[in-house]
Amino acid sequence: MDYGFLENVAQENGLAGVSPYVKLAAGLGALLLVLLSPTWVIPLVIALSLGIAVLLLARIDPHLYAHLLAAPVLFAVLSVAAVVLVTGGGEVYWAWQPWPGFALSVTSESVSRGLLVFSRVLGGMSALFFIALTTPMTELFVVMRRCRVPMPLLNLTMFVYRSIFILSDQVAQVHAAQRMRLAYSGPREAVASFGNLCGASFIASWECGEDLIRAMDARCYDGRFAMPGESAPVQARHLAGAAMYLLAVSALLVAMVYTAPGGWPV
Amino acid sequence: MSRIILESRDVRYRYPGGVDAIRGISFHVRRGEKVALVGPNGAGKSTLLLMFNGMLRPDSGTLLFDNEPLRYDTPSLRELRRRVGFVFQNPDRQIIAPTVYQDVAFGPVNLGYPEEKVREAVGNALRNVGLEGFERRPPHRLSAGEKKRVAIAGVLAMDPDLLVLDEPTSSLDPAGSEDTMELLEELHQAGKTIILSTHDVELAYPWADRAILMRQGEILQEDVPEMAFGDPDLVRRARLSVPVLLELYLELARRGLPLPGKRPKTSLEMIHLIEQAFSRGGRPGPCGTIHVCDVDRTGPDSLARWLASRDGLWIGAMGTRAKQRAAEGRITLDFSYGVIDKCLLRALGGESSLILTAGGMVQRVEIRVKSFAGEWGTEIPVEVVREQ
Questions:
Q1: Is the pTM of this model over 0.95?
Q2: Distance from first CA to last CA of chain B, Å, rounded?
Q3: Which of B85, B33, B39, B26 is nearest to B208 (CA)?
Q4: For FRET with A183, which of A164, A200, A266, B312 sits at 20 to 30 Å CA-CA?
């Protein structure tokens, strides 16, 4: 299994030539609108539009995208079911009291609240996946430097990023070697095998750290770290596209809020 | 004879665990030499290499770089490590940064170069190893051969005088190994002194100017490869094997079929010896022509037109830039390593070939072909392909 698959997908996505600032602005702006929206329609519009952008503009494999969304959607469905059954208010459609002091009901307000939670989860995850699938970490480092993230923290982040892939390879190798010799065949063996995997990975990471220091010494390390080159420049048409998208969704939000029959909040 | 760049005088080293890794080693390397340290696992090759840039300090004995004993204070070590570029066996353990550009720039940035100079050094190093356009790639997305090239570019960016490589072809596939050795040949042509460690005798034998056979922290033999690998008893004691060509040469002599001349290092030299020994009545016909094309001076369209007008040419590319151009122009290469020798072999068989190359390598091809033809007492035409 390729443990860095999200990052690998991001490195080759169809929006790689778009400035990370524009992609971050679009993703974070959409996330903000999802959180601000009092109606479930806006997050759903954002989930749909960003989904289309991810599939058509970034050319991400639809199966991969569906696979990624499946986990949060499942989690959202379970949470929404609880929210709908436990909360109340408004017209009661169905009610059941299994024992005194505890009642389950489906009401008009609990359904709206459930819909809002569900669409916010979907919209929020879509915005996060939009960023994750279109903006690789190497581009985020450039943004972090521009945002004046302290250099020691940024250097450490870059070391960690580089090490993750080396260590994940090693963990995968040890795991495969264990499975080839029938590890994880029962609960007791699984615990023992997992312990061995952790131990082997710890030793591997320790050795990796020592090698890293040696490699840095051999190349005259003096506390400095080169920064990534410049990211793709902000192009007017990309910026205009992102701005128009956010403005259109914001306008829709405002229109819905002010035309809602019950007034603010919906 | 060129100046000595590195010298070891009775160097000894014992690991903290009490194992004697290096037991009194003395040798020297001259500027512009290609030296192979050859020995089995545990012979002390890597330990010795780590002393060349001050990563390990000998318990006794002296190491000299440029005729000056090594000093182990921080400023001296920085200068030494700038001048002695060390390429580790496993590139994953050497590549530090999250992108190719950052990793290659690591050394120059820590040497305090201004940004413009860092960019220039990185650009040159990546061009030298044929990885232009890889600047923003993360290392985990590269092949093993590309990672090795990034590691080499990382030390080239500091412009070292001496390149030290620990097992440069381990974990590479045959094509990756050939590419790496071709790159080392290019760097050597550009004036770098190179020391590498290996237990691959087939790799060391044709490549090295001098081979140093090691076993259990000692030097068993130090000589030109034809002699160093020519003593089967010594080679066996070093837990190595005699290179196939040399074994064939020695075996023929043992069976009463001695070949004249010096021991062969390449197939070309072997064929030469066999023809000298057994041919009757000279060469059957004229030699084929070796065409040489400088890809920097010939446009892709012009080269395509030239190629379209000729059939049945063997095509080889020397150097990373030429190989890139061949890939861009969808030119299928017959040879990518030992190109001149292979084209000479074809020329002797009456077949013509084209060598794609760049920079000052055209002249090198001409000189090599002329000297070879002179040795063989034959005429091999060389034609430079001009822009059409």
A1: no
A2: 43
A3: B33
A4: A164
